[in-house]
């Protein structure tokens, strides 16, 4: 199985310091939906691991989050692809969970779902915590410069991190290699 794990905000869709709180505010980044579909058509399984502390903060409901994810899945399906699995952390930064990135709980959950090791599995994020969560379980980290990625690129990154302009460039690289 060729699995890839994507962060959501800043990788697939526009990020916002004020949080993405509605389907209307959930705006795909140029080329991201097509990139997911191209990976699927080439045999990749796409999973998403996303911190969504806006739930704990009361900025939006589980139903609204589900509607955003339904929209993501619809757009990818229109391009002939599929988002196979979405895991989210609903907790706030001080809730003491093990799923909020940079901790690896969502990644462990994805590994258990598929019954496989994450050694070498590409994980794509725009923040250091996205990369750290996957790298802790052996994922190959890919940083994109979209979202908060340009600022993140100036920080010390996990060893072996590959840096690309956006998700479409990551897909190009993976499909060529």
Automatic annotation (TrEMBL):
<keyword id="KW-0378">Hydrolase</keyword>
<dbReference type="InterPro" id="IPR004446">
    <property type="entry name" value="Heptose_bisP_phosphatase"/>
</dbReference>
<keyword id="KW-0479">Metal-binding</keyword>
<comment type="similarity">
    <text>Belongs to the gmhB family.</text>
</comment>
<dbReference type="InterPro" id="IPR023214">
    <property type="entry name" value="HAD_sf"/>
</dbReference>
<keyword id="KW-0119">Carbohydrate metabolism</keyword>
<dbReference type="Pfam" id="PF13242">
    <property type="entry name" value="Hydrolase_like"/>
</dbReference>
<protein>
    <recommendedName>
        <fullName>D,D-heptose 1,7-bisphosphate phosphatase</fullName>
        <ecNumber>3.1.3.-</ecNumber>
    </recommendedName>
</protein>
<dbReference type="InterPro" id="IPR036412">
    <property type="entry name" value="HAD-like_sf"/>
</dbReference>
<keyword id="KW-0963">Cytoplasm</keyword>
<dbReference type="InterPro" id="IPR006549">
    <property type="entry name" value="HAD-SF_hydro_IIIA"/>
</dbReference>
<dbReference type="InterPro" id="IPR006543">
    <property type="entry name" value="Histidinol-phos"/>
</dbReference>
């Amino acid at each position: 199985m060729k699995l890839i794990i994507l962060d959501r905000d800043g990788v697939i869709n526009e990020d916002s310091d004020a949080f993405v709180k509605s389907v209307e505010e959930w705006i795909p980044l140029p080329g991201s939906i097509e990139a997911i579909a191209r990976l699927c058509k080439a045999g990749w399984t796409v999973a998403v691991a996303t911190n969504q502390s806006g739930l704990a903060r009361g900025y939006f409901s589980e139903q609204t989050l589900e509607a955003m994810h339904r929209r993501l899945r619809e757009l990818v399906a229109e391009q002939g692809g599929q988002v196979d699995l979405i895991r989210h952390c609903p907790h706030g930064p001080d809730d003491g969970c093990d799923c909020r990135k940079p901790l690896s709980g969502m990644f462990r959950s994805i590994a258990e779902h598929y019954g496989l090791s994450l050694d070498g599995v590409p994980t794509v994020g725009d923040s250091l915590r996205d990369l750290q969560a996957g790298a802790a379980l052996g994922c190959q980290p890919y940083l994109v410069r979209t979202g908060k990625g340009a600022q993140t690129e100036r920080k010390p990154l996990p060893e072996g991190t590959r840096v690309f302009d956006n998700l479409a460039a990551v897909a190009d690289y993976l499909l060529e290699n």
